[in-house]
Fold this protein.
Amino acid sequence: MAKHGKKFKAAAEKVDPNAKYDLQEAIRLTKENAFAKFDETVDVAVNLGVDPRKADQNIRGSVLLPKGTGKKFRVLVFAKGEKETEAREAGADHVGGEDMVAKIQGGWLEFDRVVATPDMMGLVGRLGKVLGPRGMMPNPKTGTVTFNVKEAIEEIQAGKVDFRVDKGGIIHAQVGKVSFPEADLAENCEAVLSALVKLKPASSKGVYVKAVSISSTMGVGVKVAYTPN
């Protein structure tokens, strides 16, 4: 960050850290103040009024962004037999079983998303310490543990993003690229927020969506004034 210190400081001066902007204005500021030479990813962070230590409040899910992510994901599928063939035909970048487990245990991580058929989860479970911290562990709640591997791969490439609350009660989800039109980023943000509201656990008391902010990869965070419908 030191290399971009001046640019970051200049961008930060254009955003009031104490103000909450409406969604459209927050997106405009995020796009306007993105200074990197590459097409930065736009991320939404939501602070939820939950206790992640409680099983029913450990929010996890996925949402299909209506305007996509602007990214082509490298998909790894754990499958065998006809499901392995289905995965290859659907465009999976890597497909396998024991061989893939060995590669990953050896330090190979050339993939962005992981899908597994239910019968392969015993094998995939060995990779929990590697995939878990990276948010890549297949899970039925995100549709990544399924026998319908074709649909899972197609949804990932169409713009499906997974999210999971961290220890601090915050979820992060990418909602597109800085190059996206403001309206597209807004629609994707609304999709994420709507999905989160639907997942509110009955045991969560008080304010559920406590804070929302938007930022680009290298940019400053912009607070959003958001009230669930």
User: Anything to note?
Assistant: Residues 23 and 129 are 37 Å apart (CA to CA). The longest strand covers residues 41-48.
